[in-house]
Amino acid sequence: DEHAGDTAGIKSATMLIKGENAYGWLKSESGVHRLVRISPYDSNARRHTSFASVWVYPVIDDTIVVDIKESDVRTDTYRASGAGGQHINKTDSAVRLTHAPTGIVVAVQAERSQHKNRAKAWDMLRARIYEMELKKREAVAQAEADSKTEIGWGRQIRSYVLQPYQMVKDLRTGVETSDTQGVLDGDLDEFLAASLSQKLGPETIVEDLD
Known about the structure:
25% strand; elongated; Alpha-Beta Plaits; three-stranded antiparallel beta sheet; 31% helix; alpha+beta; five-stranded mixed beta sheet; Double Stranded RNA Binding Domain
């Protein structure tokens, strides 16, 4: 998706990038990028400074599949209790399920049949896990939205100077290179690795690059 500028160039653009760990590598590109160059649109060939705001966000699959391994669930049966704690059934018809990975516990004793209570308990467990996953995704979406609002003009992350000298410098990591054309052509490996190493450690980045 691309929108042309009022006079020339591009006003805004949205692109989809696919690949292994694409978001993990590129999320550090979010921020303001500063470009200094001789503008091709200036007849007096003066030096101009321009800014571009970049926001990187993941494409989230809205489909939530609840796949529960039976080995992850502990099943306990017991006699259903009524008011005052007295047993209302002589058999162990009540069912309690404990999902080990999440710690979710559900219990059903509404039916006299253990089979029916077990089926209802599994339905409740699936619903609880679905709700938990949904809240996680909503939290991720909110975090991404919040990060977008933080991308202001004061949050410059990298400068690209083409005039009077050539230098690309990352203001967060200090990584710089005079190969401006290479960077503009997409050679970002050194910058991406340096940014991620601040969060994950250099050993992890070296292994990924290898």
